Amino acid sequence: MINDYKILNILMVLFSTQIVKTYIDSFHDNKKPFNVMKHLTWGVYIFFQYWVMISSASDPLLVLTINIALIFLIYKTSYYIHAKTALFLSGILYAIWMLTEVAVNNILHLTIIEETSYFFIVGSVASKLIMYTAVHFLKRCRKSNLLTDVPFLYWVRLFLIPVATFYIIHNTYQLTSPSGNTFFFTITTILLIIVNYITFDVYDRLGNHMEIEKRNLVYEQQLALCNKQAAERETAYQETRRVRHDLNGYLVDLKAAIQSGRIEEAELKIDHILKQNQIYRNEVSRSGNLVIDALINYKYSLTQKEGIDMKCYVLIPEQIPFEGADLCIILGNLIDNAMEAVTSLPERQRYMEVSVSQVKGNLSIMVKNPYEGDIKRNGSGQIQTSKQDSLNHGIGLSSVKRSVDKYNGELLTEYGDGMFKATVLLYPPENLHDSS
After folding, report:
1. Using CA atoms, how far apart are residues 11 and 17, in angstroms rounded to an integer?
2. What is the CA radius of gyration of the chain?
3. 298-304 own/partner pairs: CB under 8 Å, 24+ apart
């Protein structure tokens, strides 16, 4: 009978495709660029759905498995996403979808529709309408992307729930269908829908919690950096005050040495004064902005110890409408990443360029450096750290991105031919005042 409704079957397939697309778009906006595999996978999915509609597929578990595999492939070809997250979301979607179809069919068995030839059509349309409404409600309610991968052991425990759902619902149907006890089967199905929803919610909250933990770790690191910079700056100011206080005595002593003809002694005294004030000779940023100057000068002193030739171009006014903490996070992480990349190079190749400028109120930050090897991206499309301790490293650029987004700015990364360039553009907010 199904073959008599080819147009309706096509519409139902397109409806199912829209449900899946809406569901996937609810979680991620980090799309991959155009690629043939994405469209090919969507085509296979649509063809498979149509085949299921017009054929008498006798193995529902096999159909379910193929559907989950296809949704997983759609995820991986369309978005930057961790494989475990893609598999979990695919499994949860079809677990709830299957349970919804079962619940709808069992409820319809209690009505007069069971006696008509439209039973299958009504059940199919009703279940899809429920899923369509649910995924749109989900998309409207969600406020963040699932970008953080959860630990493998947590993932296994949570993923066992939709897997167990398939097994339970299949065997429950086998046990209850001979007796016709649809009420028990319907209640079991509804309870499993609730369990799978709770599982999905736990996974969502766990991912967000781990993302918050990573953010807190970044902020702690940046706060320690800012405190260290403040301490260095305070030491410099104290040294300046001491040198100014002792300057009169130095000059009298120096004048006496010159008048008495002790030229070598006078030269030694001058060298001693210059050595005491060495920190000011290393100041490459003198814009007057305390945060930018302190950060760049501190990083510059570190590059000198590592044998890195750091070129700095800072053209900004003393007051800029961006929070000091955000500037520390953005500029500090970009410079750290560049330093990490060039320290692995031969000393003659260790150089980097830092540029900070303001044009029409917009702040431009650029850090450029050479690198060797391949730059890898993780499942979320983020540049991956080469360090083994990925928990405490590799989150610099994501931290930069969050601070950039705060100002509706842009973060651009370009790499190739052994050169990496990161550019940040910040737009001044109307409701923020400069705190630097």
Report:
1. 10
2. 32
3. 298/228, 298/229, 298/232, 299/332, 299/335, 299/336, 299/339, 302/339, 303/339, 303/352
- With pLDDT > 90 as the criterion, what percentage of the chain qualifies? 13
Scored b (16 or more CB within 10 A) or e, 223-247 reads eebbeebeeebeebeeeeeeeeeee
* Position 260 in a domain: no
| Domain that residue 301 falls in | 284-436
Same domain, 303 and 434: yes
Distance, CA of 364 to CA of 410 (rounded, Å) = 10
The overall longest dimension of the chain from CA atoms, in Å, is 122
Q: Read off the amino acid at residue 241.
A: R
Global confidence as pTM: 0.55
Give the chain's length: 436
Sheet holding 419-426, edge to edge: 309-315, 351-359, 362-370, 419-426, 410-416
Ramachandran category for residue 81: left, alpha or beta (phi over 0 → left; psi -120 to 50 → alpha): beta
User: Whole-angstrom Cα distance, residue 137 to residue 46?
Assistant: 24
Q: Is residue 188 part of a domain?
A: yes
Cβ-in-10-Å burial (0-12, 13-18, 19+) of 430 comes to exposed
Give tens-digit pLDDT for 88-138: 889 888 888 888 888 888 787 777 665 566 666 777 788 888 888 888 887
Domain count, the chain: 2
Judging by DSSP bridges, how do beta strands 410-416 and 362-370 pair with one another? Answer: unpaired
Q: How far apart are CA 353 and CA 308, in angstroms?
A: 10
- Name the domain boundary from 172, 193, 217: 217
Give the C-alpha separation, 67 to 131, whole Å. 16
